[in-house]
Amino acid sequence: MFNKICRFFLLQAAVIVAALVVMSGPATADALPSRDPYKVNPGDVLQIAVWKEEDLKRELLVNPDGHFAFPLAGDMVAEGRTVDQIRQELTEKLGRFIPDVVVTVAALQLSGNKVYVLGQVNHASEFIMTRTLDVMQAISMAGGPTPFAKLDDIKVLRRSDQGTQIAIPFRYTDVQEGKKLDQNILLRAGDTVVVP
């Protein structure tokens, strides 16, 4: 008798769980966080190919000034642009010389998409961001803070597009306790996290 009662309640629980899953509906793209497309940085390596044009296939390093040169297209700006924007401009420029041109552009190496973590961390270094990264994650990648770190005096150094540098304060203990989470910002290429 006891076993029959247990099976009855387990069956009821399974029905309730199944109903909740159906009521919640399938996961949609709207439920997922949207991400901005990746923007190319100096030091990245791009692979560019033109269909049926073997001579126009290249792997190119984006120069420190954010540019690269490509045959028939000349000097191209890459920094701060998506691979699709670069592809569209190349298609337009090459289309003057090649009818019905088809261009593909891919980011092969994201070597320019780096952040730096310095100071009182266990493994100060530069880190290539292969995905979005916030301040806590960067500190974790650096092995976490040392016992001597001044956790509430951490700064994120960021250079603006105009070249000026700003210091964004970060209080580790607040975020660790789940408070003031807005200061746990997403890092950008070139940011430096300083843990004094």
How does this model look, in words?
The protein has 196 residues and is an alpha+beta fold. It has 2 domains: 65 residues, wza like fold; 82 residues, Outer membrane lipoprotein wza fold like (Roll). The protein is 24% helix and 29% strand. The chain has 4 helices and 10 strands; from the N terminus they run αββββαβββαββαβ. Strands 7-6-10-8-9 form a 5-stranded mixed β-sheet, with helices on one face. The longest helix is centred in the first third of the chain and has 23 residues.
The overall pLDDT average reads 86
Walk across the major sheet and give the strand order: 7-6-10-8-9
How far the N terminus sits from the C terminus, by CA atoms, comes to 67 Å
Q: What is the approximate shape?
A: elongated
Radius of gyration: 25 Å
What's the helical proportion of residues? 10-25%
Provide the structure class: alpha+beta
Biggest beta sheet summary: 5 strands, mixed
Strand and helix order: HEEEEHEEEHEEHE
Q: Number of DSSP strands? A: 10
Q: How many distinct folded domains?
A: 2
> What fraction of residues sit in β-strands?
25-35%
